[in-house]
Amino acid sequence: MKALCAAIAPILMISQPLSAQPASEQIDTKVEAGEFNRTTSILLTRGDQVLHESYYDEGGAGALRNTRSVTKTVTGMLVGIAVARGALPGADAKVLDYFPFTPDNPDPRKSAMTVEDLLTMSGPLECNDSNPWSRGNEERMYTIEDWPRFFLDLPIRGFPAWQPKPADSPYGRAFSYCTAGVSTLGAVIESATGEQLEDYANTHLFAPLGIDTTEWQFSPLGLAQGGGGLGLSSRSLEKLGRLYLDGGKVGDQQIVPADWVAASIAPKASVPDQEGVEYGYLWWQRSYSHDGKSYRGASMSGNGGNKVIIIPELDLVAVITTTNFGQGNAHQVSDRLFEEHLLPLAVAAG
């Protein structure tokens, strides 16, 4: 890919009416006016062409953006790499095989729990970050030292009559968003490879992409948090999205297996209460529309509306970073920014 353009200087006051501004300038004007709340950067590429790159805070292009659960997708990439390198037998590997203890609440369904169950947010344990009363809610995990043990000790999830069981759900999986499960995937990778998660990521994912600056969050016992909080620059995030558009390759080097890439962005579970939204291997999937045409996309997504969106049909990567943490409509704000402004800009670029 051609080198990305230099960080855009602070935007000057523009006297001409908004309708007369070029589309890219209109985006900057709207963001700086606060229409999209605290959006901190936008980077849009189509193929090797940079269509828009702007930074709306003091950090600029070099700032490490805490994009929260975007990290989960990175962990999914590392699982695929571990499979390709023979450290894991596949997505059907049993999770408990990688831990030297017998967890509380033993159950055959827990023993049968697979890596794929955690990749698709559809495991058998009672873990739901959307439910503050869930025993597995991530806020409860942060109060103890051993995060994987916290997850593995959880009881089996129950399904009252008003909730569809896995067998009655699309794709045979009942989705339940669970950060603790993905944190545990990081520990599975460490156990399988014999390397710390951050070192494995640096060697087998980041270095081949030319990403040399990262910032991980860690558990009290020193486990890198595969479930959130990884700091990466906007340009590094774009490289991760581009990797999946290119089938897991950088040049002639296959970083992530092509079949893992395809499986990751294919639907594996339907997300309840979000019409048209599906989930793959830690990738969100939905369609975006412009000028009467629908474009299927996949995204890495984190709290605050932080997103890396890829549209394979357009060879498009869009990075949106924000500090809109904890805002109930943050994802809708970023999706509107993408659908109303970035997608049209990319389509027009041909």
Automatic annotation (TrEMBL):
Residues 1-20 form the signal peptide. GO terms for molecular function: hydrolase activity. Keywords: Hydrolase, Signal. It comes from the Bacteria. Residues 41-328 form the Beta-lactamase-related domain. This is Serine hydrolase. It comes from Parerythrobacter jejuensis.
